[in-house]
Task: inverse folding
C-alpha cells in the first residue's frame, strides 16, 4: 500500500512527472491518457498537468536544450488514446449497467465519484462528455455513466471525438507555447503551477460540498 501511495504521489510531483516523461516518452504518455479516461481505476492519474508538461517538453528538455518530444505525433497519438479511452469507458458502462452504483468502495474505487459524474451528466446532457474532459475525476467517470444511461452510441462518439481532440490539443499547445517563453528556464515552478491549476476544480468542489451543509445549519 505504501508503495502505491508513493507512486501516486510521484505522478503529481514536478520531479516525478518530468522523470516519467523523459524515461517513458510517448508510449507511457499514451498508456496514462488511455487509462485515465478508459479505466475506472485511472481517476488518480495526472491529466491536464501531464498534457501541459508533455507540451512543454516538445519545446525544451527542461535544461536549456531542444524539446525531447515531437509535437504532432504527440497531439495525434494522445488524441486517439483519449477518444478510445472514453469509448472503452462508455462500453463498460453499457455492459455493467446500474450495478456499479451498488459496488462497495475500495482503495481504487469510490462510489461517490460515480454519483458525482451521474449528477453532472444529468445536468449537462451530451455536453457533459465534452465539459468533463477538463475536470479531473469526472473525465474518468462521465463516459462510464453515459454508457450506464444508454446514451445513443453515435451521439456519444461525436461528443467524445470533439472533447478528446479539444482537451489534448488545448493542453499540449498551452505547454508548447509556455516552453518557448522565458518561463522555460523555470520548468519546476511551471509544473507546480500547472498541477495546482489542474486540481483547482476538485478543491472548489470539495469546498462547496463542505460549505453546503454548514450554510443550511445557519
Result:
Amino acid at each position: 500500500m505504501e508503495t502505491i501511495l508513493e507512486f501516486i504521489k510521484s505522478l503529481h510531483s514536478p520531479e516525478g512527472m518530468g522523470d516519467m516523461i523523459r524515461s517513458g516518452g510517448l508510449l507511457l504518455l499514451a498508456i496514462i491518457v488511455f487509462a485515465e479516461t478508459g479505466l475506472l481505476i485511472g481517476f488518480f492519474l495526472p491529466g491536464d498537468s501531464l498534457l501541459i508538461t508533455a507540451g512543454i517538453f516538445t519545446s525544451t528538455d527542461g535544461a536549456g536544450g531542444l524539446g525531447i518530444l515531437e509535437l504532432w505525433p504527440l497531439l495525434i497519438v494522445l488524441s486517439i488514446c483519449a477518444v478510445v479511452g472514453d469509448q472503452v469507458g462508455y462500453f463498460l458502462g453499457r455492459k455493467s449497467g446500474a450495478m456499479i452504483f451498488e459496488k462497495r468502495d475500495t482503495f481504487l474505487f469510490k462510489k461517490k465519484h460515480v454519483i458525482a459524474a451521474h449528477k453532472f451528466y444529468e445536468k449537462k446532457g451530451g455536453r457533459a462528455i465534452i465539459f468533463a474532459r477538463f475536470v479531473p475525476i469526472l473525465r474518468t467517470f462521465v463516459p462510464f455513466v453515459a454508457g450506464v444511461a444508454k446514451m445513443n452510441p453515435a451521439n456519444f462518439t461525436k461528443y467524445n471525438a470533439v472533447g478528446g481532440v479539444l482537451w489534448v490539443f488545448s493542453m499540449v499547445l498551452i505547454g508548447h507555447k509556455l516552453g518557448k517563453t522565458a518561463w522555460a528556464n523555470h520548468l519546476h515552478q511551471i509544473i507546480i503551477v500547472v498541477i495546482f491549476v489542474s486540481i483547482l476544480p476538485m478543491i472548489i468542489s470539495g469546498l462547496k460540498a463542505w460549505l453546503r451543509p454548514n450554510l443550511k445549519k445557519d
Notes: Residues 2-217 form one domain. Residues 187-217 form the longest helix (31 residues). The chain has one domain: 2-217. The chain has a mean pLDDT of 81.
